[in-house]
Amino acid sequence: MSGTTPSRGMSRCASYPLLVLTGFCLSGFAFASEDLNYGGNLEKAKAFIQFQEQERLEDQLNLYASEVVVQSPQYGAQDLDFEGARDMLAEYHSIFDDMRFSDASWIPGVSESGSLDGSVSVFGTWTGRNVSSGAVVELNSYHKFEFNSEGKIISHEDYFDFGGMMAAAVMNHPVVVSLKVREGQLAAAISALDSPEGLPLTRDWPGCLSLTRFVHEATNTIWVIANWESYQAYGEYLDWRQSTDTFVSEKLNPLLEDVGDAVAIIQPNSFIKEF
Question: Which of 161, 189, 201, 240 has the fewest CB atoms inside 10 Å of its own CB, making it the most exposed?
Answer without folding.
Answer: 240
